[in-house]
Every structure is written in C-alpha cells, then in structure tokens.
C-alpha cells in the first residue's frame, strides 16, 4: 500500500462511521439477547455494507476488506449458514469494536498497517468455513513503478522465438537441482539467475521484463542465504516455469496482454523479506519501496496495541477518575508541605494511593508516568522504613511528579509521546506542557484564519460585512506571532506575505484585483489552514499543503522569506530626501598654515565688525617632540617600537564594514557632512 496517502479524508466521515458501527453493534446485541428476532441480522448486514462502501470511497482497502468480511458473517448469521452462531457473534462483536480503534490510529497520523487486521480477518473467515488469508494478501506494492534504466535498457544477443525452448530446458534443470539440494544447490540457483537474466534481456515489454527481473532477484537472495528457500518460494518459482512455457507456446505478446500480476506480487513479498542479497535485490527493494510496505516488529507491536481497546472513549472515562485521584493527592501533599509528615499513617496512605495510581497508569500504557510514580514511592518508602520524615526536597519531587502525571493524562489519546525515557521529570513535564500550549495556539490560529476567510469572501461578494477586511492583517499578525512562538518560521512567513498582499491590494480598493489572484490567495490561506490542522491532529502529512500555500503566495508576487521573527512593523515612516546640493569650492592654498591664517583673519574681522573684542588666547605651549605619551606608556623618539601594541588599519574593507547596509553608510555620511 502506498504509504504517502493522506488519510485526512477519513476525518470527514469518521463521525458517521462511528455512528453506523454503533447501530450495527446495537443490532448484534439485540439479536444475541433474542435470537428469534430475525430482522436484526438484516439490519446488521445493511449497516456493515454502508461502512464497507464508505471505506472503499476513502481508499482504505485494508479496513474495507475487514468490513466486507464482517458483512459476509452477518449475512451468514441471517440465512442460518453458520454452524456455530455463538462464535460468529463473538468474533463479529470483536471486529466491530476493533475497527474504530484502527481508524483512530490512522487519523492520529500513524502508518497504515493492514497486516495487523489479519488475525480478526481469519477468525471471520474461519466461522464461515472459508480458507484463511496469508500475509501477502495485505501486501500491495505499486506494480506500475518504472523499472530502472539499467533493466529496461538491458539487452542480450539472441532470438527470443528460437532460444526460449532451450532456455526453459536449462531453467528446469536448475529448478530440479535446487529442489534436490546438496552440493549442486548453489550452482543450480546460478543457472536460474542466468536463464532469467537472458530472458529479460531478450524481452521488450516492461510487464514481461518485470517478471523475469523480480524472479532473478529471488534466485539471488536464496543463493546469498538472505532468503530461506521455503516450500512457498519453490512453488512460486515453479509458477515462473509455467510462465516460460506460455512464452514458448504463445510468445511475448501473450504475456504482455495478460501479465502475471499475482505472481509478481507474491515474488515481491518474499524479496521484501530478504535482508541483503546483492545489487539486484537492493534495486528491486528500492524500486518498489518494499521496506516501507512491510513494517518492523516495533511498528507491528504498536499497531497491535492500538487495537487493544484503549481508544479515546476509554481515555476520556478513565481520565476523570485519575484527575479526581490527583486532586486528593495534591491536597494531601499541600498539607504535608505546610505541616510536615508527623503522622506516619498519613504518609503510608499517600504511598498506597500513589501505588494504585501507578497501576492505573500502567494499564493505560503510560509507562513513563508509571515509572516515575514507582520511583517516588520507593523514595518515600525508604524514609518510612528508617522512621524519618521525608525532607521538603523529596516532597517537591513528588509534587513535580503529580504535575507530570496530570499532563500525561491530558495528553492521553492525542497520539503524542509524553516524553523520552532519558529525560528528567522536569524536561518531560515541559514537553507535555508545550504540547498543551501548542494545541491552544493552533486552535486560536485556525479560528483567526476562519474569520479572515469569511471577511475575504464577504469582500469578494461586495457584502456590507466587507468592512472587516481591514482587520484581517491584524488577525494574520496574531497568527504569525503564535507560529513564531511554536518556531514555525515557514508558516509565519507565508501568513506575513499574505497580510502584505491584503494591505497593498485589497484594503486600498484602488486596484482591480483579478479573480485568478484571489484563487492564489485562497490556495495560500487554505493550505496554511490545512497544515495547522494536521499539526493539531498530529498527522504526518502537511508539507504538501505548505508547498501549495507557498506557491500560491509567491505567484502573487510576494516571495516567502525564511525568517520573519526579526522583521519590524511593515508601516515605515517616509524620510524626506535632502535635495540640496552642497556648493563646490575650488580653493587652493599653499600650505596648512595659509588655511589657518586665513581662517583666523576671517574670525577676527567678523568680531571687529560686531563690536566684540577678540578674546586673547594664551600661546600654546610647545610640544616636547622628544617625549610623547601613547596609551599610558612613555615613548621617546628613536625608541624601538617593535614590541608595542599597535592598531592595524586594514587596507581592504573588513567583514564588518562590508556588512553595513548602503542606507546606513549614506546616513552616516550625511550626519558627518552636517
């Protein structure tokens, strides 16, 4: 199954699916209580058929297969063809309860692993007397994947029509030697690989070439001991021999018209299980993304645990009781911090309450929280055994633990990890609280985007409420601030660019806006809204929506900047330009003394005209050129200055001077000129 499918469409129909499954469960319960009511199995089958159609519509084929088997069991109960009705009703009830949990797991953004439904599927088929399904029934690789160029361009010399009979004879010899085993097993597998190499070098149709290439990968994997040559694999290679016979009898076109799709799929299933096996096996696994289609043991364990009945309804019910227990523990701890645990019985009661709380958390699969609780109970028990009262530091640790447990309970059912085992309680508490803050911020951001969409729609329709458009930039600025708080700089840049466009083009109203531009703006806002919803619901898929949003706003001529956290307000003050041109002077002086004399004469003449006597200034004392003070050190002319600190004047501009903006340099020159 393609793992890049976005299951967000499931959220649109999830409530209806839950309601329909609830009605199906009620019909089954009514029939179990009164088996004479033969109308209930018919109602049950109708409800399950509706569920099956809905799951087919949203392309959840694994869940749809389960719904189909459930419907078949309901029909079998209705027509009385089931011999053990009690077992059939029990299995059907279990399937009805597990299907919503499976769908909740997909909505939470987890990988779709239909293989986890295989046990209940086989139980449903067993009560009807049908053959059981194998694991590869849930294995759906993309058989339309483009073959590597090294495979499609590979050719060998020969005539397909004349050589196929001889090639099949050699293939059968290798197949027989492999079946017999012994010393010639490796050589026989090498013969199989050679024949299949020649076949896909002689054939031209991609569907036929694919079969020989994948079969050659099976032979390579078995020869390298990375795949066990089981009975099932030997049967598949026997079917490959039958396809070679079809090639001999009817030619390549017959295989191309009716490709052996099921055979290729089954061969790929075993190639996916191979660990290594050579370049060809690696190329096959990469082409069909086989490692993504077969989950690992940890993923399978997590998927099975999600079907254990720990769903959102259970978490909501248990959370109420856990919070009440936490409230009582907080009261006891508050009294202890104020007065101290002088009564050993009170401490013992608190330890028992903490222990029962830890057991409850363990049943809810909150292992991190339970571990911390058990640690605190052990610390308190050590003081009880010693007959001492626990210090305030230990009680404060217990208080932090209770806060962490409360945050963990708040996060139950959200699909988020509360913390990593290597983190301290404070770090895990901080992460949990950050998740709660993120939920609030995202909720407010989505609400502001919804208000902005309504204002823009009203503007496009020319309604009276279009006056709210002036408030949209402010709403977007609030959204940007929240996104920067969550370090979502890319999303903040997109919303900032959208606000600029609305301020420049829509609010003034003096520019005619094309309908296509409004479509691009809608793409940007809706794409960002979808991304925020995916973050809030902890879905894996959202980058594609961000790409659409970014492309839409850039098409409007407002490129998205990488970081808007340091940007100032968009409203800038107009700085008047200084258009006055300083007059140029073309004065020549023989020396600096002439400049000084002329300047002094001008000042003296001005003072005499104004009637002010010139101030007598004492003659400056002569500077002793033989001794000069330089940064607190005495330096004499002729001294060796090689050991003194000096200031280097760079001949070339430094990084600091190059980094100065042109506007700042011009401004500095203007001030110096003034």
The H-and-E topology, N to C, reads as HHHHHHHHHHHHHHHHHHHHHHHHHEEHH
Outline: globular
- Strand segment count: 2
**Strand neighbour order, sheet with most strands:** 1-2
The rounded distance between the terminal residues' Cα atoms is 74 Å
How many helix segments?
27
Unreliable spans = 415-422, 565-674
Fraction in beta strands = under 5%
Number of domains: 4
Question: What does the largest sheet look like?
Answer: 2 strands, antiparallel
Q: What is the gyration radius calculated from CA atoms?
A: 40 Å
Summed over residues and divided by their number, the pLDDT gives a mean of 76
Percent in helix: 55-70%
Structural class based on helices, strands and sheet pairing: mainly alpha
Organism: hydrothermal vent metagenome
Pfam families: FimL_2nd, Hpt
EC number: 2.7.3.-
Domain HPt: 10-108
Entry keywords:
Four Helix Bundle (Hemerythrin (Met), subunit A); 4 domains; mainly alpha; two-stranded antiparallel sheet
Describe the structure.
The protein is mainly α and 674 residues long. It has 4 domains: 9-138, HPT domain (Four Helix Bundle (Hemerythrin (Met), subunit A), Up-down Bundle), CATH 1.20.120; 149-293, no CATH class; 310-418, Up-down Bundle (Four Helix Bundle (Hemerythrin (Met), subunit A)); 435-555, Four Helix Bundle (Hemerythrin (Met), subunit A) (Up-down Bundle). It has 27 helices and 2 strands. The chain has helices spanning 9-33, 39-57, 61-79, 85-107, 118-127, 149-152, 160-180, 185-202, 206-223, 231-250, 252-257, 261-272, 279-287, 290-293, 297-306, 312-339, 344-363, 367-386, 392-410, 425-461, 472-485, 489-506, 515-536, 543-555, 592-609, 655-659, 662-673, and strands at residues 627-630, 633-636. It has a two-stranded antiparallel sheet with strand order 1-2. The radius of gyration is 40 Å and the shape is globular. The protein starts with 8 loop residues before the first helix and ends with a helix. Residues 415-422 and 565-674 have low confidence and may be disordered.
């Amino acid at each position: 199954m393609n793992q890049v499918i976005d299951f967000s469409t499931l959220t649109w129909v999830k409530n209806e699916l839950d309601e329909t499954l609830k009605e199906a469960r009620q019909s089954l319960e009514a029939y179990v209580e009164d088996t004479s009511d033969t109308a209930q199995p018919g109602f049950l089958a109708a409800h399950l058929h509706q569920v099956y159609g809905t799951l087919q519509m949203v392309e959840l084929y694994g869940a749809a297969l389960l719904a189909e088997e459930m419907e078949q069991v309901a029909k079998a109960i209705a027509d009385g063809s089931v011999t053990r009705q009690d077992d059939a009703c029990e299995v059907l009830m279990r399937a009805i309860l597990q299907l919503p949990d499976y769908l909740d797991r997909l909505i939470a953004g987890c990988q779709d692993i239909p293989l986890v439904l295989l046990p209940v599927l086989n139980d449903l088929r067993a009560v009807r007397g049908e053959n059981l399904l194998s694991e590869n029934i849930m294995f759906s690789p993309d058989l339309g994947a483009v073959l590597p160029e090294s495979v499609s361009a590979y050719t060998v010399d020969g005539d397909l029509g004349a050589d196929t009979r001889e090639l099949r004879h050699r293939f059968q010899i290798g197949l027989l030697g492999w079946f017999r085993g012994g010393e010639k097993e490796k050589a026989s597998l090498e013969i199989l690989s050679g024949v299949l190499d020649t076949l896909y070098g002689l054939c031209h149709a991609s569907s036929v070439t694919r079969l020989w290439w994948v079969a050659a990968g099976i032979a390579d994997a078995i020869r390298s001991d990375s795949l066990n040559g089981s009975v099932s694999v030997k049967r598949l290679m026997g079917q490959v021999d039958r396809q070679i016979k079809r090639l001999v009898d009817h030619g390549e076109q017959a295989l191309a018209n009716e490709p052996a799709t099921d055979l290729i799929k089954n061969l790929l299933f075993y190639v996916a299980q191979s660990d290594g096996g050579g370049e060809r096996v690696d190329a096959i696994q990469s082409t069909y993304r086989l490692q993504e289609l077969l989950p690992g043991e940890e993923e399978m364990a997590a998927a099975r645990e999600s079907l254990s009945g720990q769903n959102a309804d259970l978490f909501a019910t248990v959370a109420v009781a856990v919070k009440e227990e936490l409230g009582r523990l907080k009261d006891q701890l508050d009294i202890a911090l104020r007065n101290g645990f002088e009564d050993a019985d009170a401490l013992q009661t608190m330890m028992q309450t903490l222990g029962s709380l830890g057991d409850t958390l363990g049943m809810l699969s909150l292992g991190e929280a339970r571990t911390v609780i058990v640690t605190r109970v052990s610390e308190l028990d050590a003081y009880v055994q010693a007959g001492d009262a626990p210090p305030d530091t230990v009680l404060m640790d217990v208080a932090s633990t209770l806060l962490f447990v409360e945050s963990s309970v708040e996060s139950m059912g959200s699909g988020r990890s509360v913390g990593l085992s290597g983190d301290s309680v404070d770090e895990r508490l901080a992460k949990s609280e950050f998740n709660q803050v993120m939920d609030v911020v995202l909720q407010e951001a989505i609400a502001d985007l919804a208000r902005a969409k309504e204002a823009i729609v009203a503007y496009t329709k020319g309604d009276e409420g279009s006056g709210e458009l002036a408030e949209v930039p402010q709403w977007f600025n609030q959204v940007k601030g929240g996104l920067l708080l969550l370090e979502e700089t890319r999303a903040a840049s997109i919303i900032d660019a959208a606000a600029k466009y609305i301020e420049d083009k829509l609010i003034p109203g003096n520019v005619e806006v094309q309908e296509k531009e409004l479509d691009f703006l809608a793409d940007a806002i809706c794409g960002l809204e979808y991304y925020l919803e995916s973050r809030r619901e902890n879905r894996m898929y959202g980058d594609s929506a961000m790409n659409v949003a970014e492309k839409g706003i850039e098409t409007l001529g407002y490129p998205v900047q990488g970081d808007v956290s340091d940007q100032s307000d968009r409203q800038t003050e107009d700085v008047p330009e200084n258009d006055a041109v300083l007059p140029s002077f073309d004065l020549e002086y023989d020396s600096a003394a002439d400049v000084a004399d002329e300047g002094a004469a001008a000042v003296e003449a001005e003072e005499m005209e104004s009637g002010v006597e010139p101030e007598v200034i004492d003659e400056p004392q002569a500077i002793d050129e033989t001794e000069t003070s330089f940064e607190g050190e005495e330096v004499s002319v002729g001294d060796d200055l090689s050991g003194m600190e000096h200031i280097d004047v760079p001949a070339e501009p430094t990084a600091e001077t190059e980094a100065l903006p042109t506007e700042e340099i011009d401004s500095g020159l203007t001030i110096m000129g003034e």
